[in-house]
Amino acid sequence: MPEPSVRTEGLGSLSMFTDELILARIFSRLSAKDLISSVPLVSKVFYVFSNEEFLWKSLALDRHGGDFLFQGNWKLTALTPKERQTADPNAFPTMPTRVPVQGFTSHALYYRWYLSHLPLKEFHVDHGHVPRIDIKTIDLEDFRENYDAPCKIVMLKGAMDGWKAHEHWKGEEMLKRYGDIQWKVSHKGKQKLTMNLKNYMHYAKLQSDEAPLYIFDSDFGEKAPEMLKDYTPPSLFREDMYELLEENRPNFRWVILGPERSGSPWHTDPDGTSAWNSLLSGRKRWAFYPPHIVPPGLTLHPNGRGLYTDMEAPFPVEWFYAIYPSLLPHQRPIEEAGETIFVPRGWWHIVLNLEDTVAVTQNFVGRCNVRDTLEEIATSKKRDKDFEHFVQVLTAEHPEYTQMTKHVRREREERRQEKLKEEGGADDDDDDETDLWEALRAVCAHHGMEVPQEKYQVELPSDSTNTVFMTEKAVVKFYTAEKEARESFDREVNMYSLLQGSEVKCPKLLFSGQIVEQEEGYHLTNANESIEGGLLYVVASRLLGDPVRDVWSTLQNESIERSVDFLAENLRKLHDLKRKVSDEDVEHWKKFITKRDEDLIKDHESWFITDSTVISQMRDYIDVDRQILDAPNRFQLIHSDVNDENLIGYYPGQLPEAKLDTTKRGEGYLKEVYDWQPSGLIDFGDACVGDPMYDLVALHVSLFRCDKKLLRRFLETYGVDRWPLMREPGRFSRTMMMYTLLHQCNAMATVYRWKPHLIRVTDLRELEKILWDLSV
Q: So where does this one cross the membrane (predicted)?
């Protein structure tokens, strides 16, 4: 019989658990007295565990708070009374020599040690592919249009010119000025911690923590008012509507100091704010993910309503060590001393300090994100007073936002009324989700597909009218919307039938039918007739990649142009599909447009986004009969909703079968790996016979972000001669502006999202010229 290992012998029945679990759940609860007296005597393994630095760090902070002088390691710091602590390393207390333990190894202990001594030179290799511009070369409107509105990260040079902070916030000068001030310190524990700068600098110089203490203080302006005179917000960020709240404003500015390996874990900035971060000294490595993509390694905890009340995030050096090699260049910029980075609203970000750093950062609310801020505050009933106060001061100073605030307030009240009408609260939602989950498993089993065993195996989009499950190889859509479910289902199935064998790049229809829950289980049948309680469903192949929305703002020009050409070629093929246009088709389109025209004023008033002056011009501006309905020769099969969620694509370097030569470097290699490729169009639930020009609305205002250069390229690739109205000066732009106003998806809200400055344009013909006149 083999001899038991040192670990098995030393842990006994605890050996069934991982070292990490034993340390976190048992040893972290022990006192300093336990760890230096009885525990080390139990076994060799207990002796090793009882000397772990992170345990003693927690005990030191529990004992001293932030009032300590670091004694070279955390065990000495925890055990040495404050009055006996010294700043002289030569006078540190001595500890008994640790006894080496033969035959015991621990990956958990080694991993912690490795991260605390990891050379960060590997993270210095490249600067990341984000735009770097001199702030003197861009004006405010250009910045809003090209970076703020489209939520695009940018690094600014020259934004800190003339700051006194360059001299006052460095080394000995900073210690002399602010050394005795108590600074808020961020750390992994739950207790609030403050340290004076002298003690913190002493600690930062000697420590070798995997997650060092990090000064992150929002009250520095109150503690040291003279610091506010040492810097001014860069010129592009001086419009800040949160200033209107005055003393009621939430925390918005922070001074940040930290040694290498310190940093901020994954987070998004609060209240829909954007941020700027100016680095006075050192280097920072950032990583970013768009708002709707949860970063890998981050655990979010749902509260039953799709919101998140808590999250667990690895500390920065741990996350970068595990994930950094897989990040795309635009996701991982380095910020150098003297640079200012713009962090768009809603974007996930994490920061790793590659050197000792000093920085200042502020969150702000400008015209591009004021709606985001209002909507985020409005989600919490506890913040009703904050919401109403902000609306009051905002509309008093900026009356042009009155309509928008009414819209946000109305949406808030509608959500609350819906919640009051629900029976059983969150449990009902859970039951619905369970029912659909079981229905999904039944559909997969019936059609011979792999049956998911756990919910984490499928991706569940949260913003679809119907419920969509995405497995590895297929997309299963249940038509759960009460209204028009059958009509939408029929349109989608018919479109897939027409698209089979065509050259349009799109999913393939695999199965469709109806599923009914019965006492003995689920029964699947065809969808020819409606069955009470039945759910219609469609199963289609899953295209490679993700929506272009996830990456559009980070794509290089070549990838964008390729996507535009792809769309032009595939929409032309869709429009050219051989299908006889019947009188019924034409009548359906005319009824749709006539109904949109009838509801025009009511809809725009209820959407509360378009200025009332613009709305008052719509009735005289739009001439449906003459401009739209008199052109039957233009009726073809159309998609109706070519937005940034419905174009799918991928990076070749992310393919499972990609064979990448990791020894390669340079632009050629980056292009080979990171050149985004479109794979197809999805979501044909709104497809119908209509005017192909209608497809240009969502394409231009959602996907192209109202960029007329891209629209021109699209039309040229599609074939300018195929758009007869372009031969008539002014008629093309007039028709497109009318379709924009008539669009069922509130296209004007999307226009204002990407071009927020247009909210001030109150003349419809001027809006037409800006958005659709291709001669300017």
A: none
Q: Which amino acid is at 481?
A: A
For the stretch 200-241, pLDDT in tens is 999 999 999 999 999 999 999 999 999 999 999 999 999 999
**Looking at residue 458, what is its pLDDT?**
55
- pLDDT of the residue at 723: 84
Residue 58, classified by CB atoms within 10 Å of its CB into exposed (0-12), middle (13-18) or buried (19+), is middle
φ/ψ of residue 401, rounded to 5: -95, 10
Using alpha carbons, select from 11, 4, 7 the residue that is nearest to residue 27.
11
407 contacts 608 by C-beta, under 8 angstroms: yes
Report whether 512 contacts 537 (CB < 8 A).
Answer: yes
| Residues whose CB falls within 8 Å of the CB of residue 759, separated by 6 or more in sequence, listed in order | 367, 400, 404, 611, 752
Structure confidence at residue 721 (pLDDT): 84
Q: Which residues of the chain have pLDDT under 70?
A: 1-4, 301-312, 419, 421-435, 453-465, 480-484, 608, 630-633, 653-674, 729
| CATH number of the structural domain 122-368 | 2.60.120.650
Alpha helices in 660-730 (DSSP H): 667-674, 695-698, 708-718
Q: What is the largest CA-CA distance in the chain?
A: 96
Helix axis angle, 764-772 to 612-621, nearest 10°: 80
d(CA 473, CA 444): 11
CATH code, residues 443-542: 3.30.200.20
What is the rounded CA–CA span in Å between residue 636 and residue 646?
20
Residue 675 confidence (pLDDT): 79
pLDDT of residue 463: 44
Q: Give the separation between CA 182 and CA 195, rounded to whole angstroms.
A: 5
Q: 547-772 has which CATH code?
A: 3.90.1200.10
Radius of gyration of the chain (CA): 30
CA 112, CA 156: separation in Å to the nearest integer?
36
Helices and strands counted in the chain (H then E): 29, 25
Handedness of CA 709, 715, 716, 717 (dihedral sign): positive
Domain boundaries, given as residue ranges, for the chain: 6-118, 122-368, 369-421, 443-542, 547-772
Backbone dihedral angles phi then psi of residue 622, each to the nearest 5 degrees: -90, 130
Q: One-letter amino acid identity for 153?
A: I
518-536: burial string, b at 16+ Cβ within 10 Å, e else: eeeebebeebeeeeeebbb
pLDDT of res. 664: 47
